[in-house]
Request: fold
Amino acid sequence: MTETAVLRIQTLGSFQVWRQQEILAWPTQKSKALFQILLVEPGRLVPTDQILEYLWPDLPLRKARNNLWVTVSQLRRALQPDSPPRARSAYIHKQGEGYRFNTESDYWLDGDEFAKHLAAAQSATNLTARIAAWEAARSLYQGDYLEDEPYAEWAQFPRTQWRRRYEQLLVNLAEAYGKNGRFQQAIVYCRELLTLDNVNESAYRLLMRCHAALGERAAALKVYDEAVQALWEEIGVEPVPETAELARQIKLSEGDWRPETEFWTISSPPTPISSPFVGRGKEIDQFTRLLTRAAAGQGQVTLISGEPGI
Reply:
């Protein structure tokens, strides 16, 4: 899988596929959707029944299977228009009662490249190399996973997973720049993180520290006010004592305020819950954050309501 691969696939942001540097024209929306389904976990066999449930849930089984056969043929032809009739597809393989994307084919996938950069950062021997690898990964994240398919069932959980990976990447970058004394750049990434998760108190604290270290006490205290408002409006809680104490310290400080290195940290985003609650991503995220706060000693009563059996 190289930069010069015949097939280039973008899933982070709008879904785009290039074949030999030309954007692929989809013969049908179903063929496009089928390809997306097979790319959720490249190489994994997706059972035929699952594909039918995704694409033709209301059709009789015989009709749905016939539609799948036609759609697979359309997809294979779109990916390899010059392939001889009846030739084995290089990309879409049938195996038993299912289909999979062939990961040994000549392709480039942004998600795989993102993961490679994260691995390079983890094995880097110095902070400069680590930052460079993280920045390379960040450049690949052009938006939410399959963002132009907001209601596609197959994209819901991977979208949440990718969002969490990107949030963690922003955490890593903000912390690294803070430790490096590059406070303005740390502020940029804290702000971006808060656009994705506006109740991340750790991000607010790092943002406050960066402004304070730059001598911007008023800006730091304004960040605290933003945190108070967001936490109350979103999840009905007040800041934890650590955040309130930081605001008090900054308010009483004079001149430059530079905490020790260990204070340039942000708590990692909570691990996404693997669940079938399609269309309830926001509620699950909120509940996960409340559980995280409870584990830190900031518990509260939370009511979950709904129709019986739902």
Summary: The longest helix spans residues 156-179.
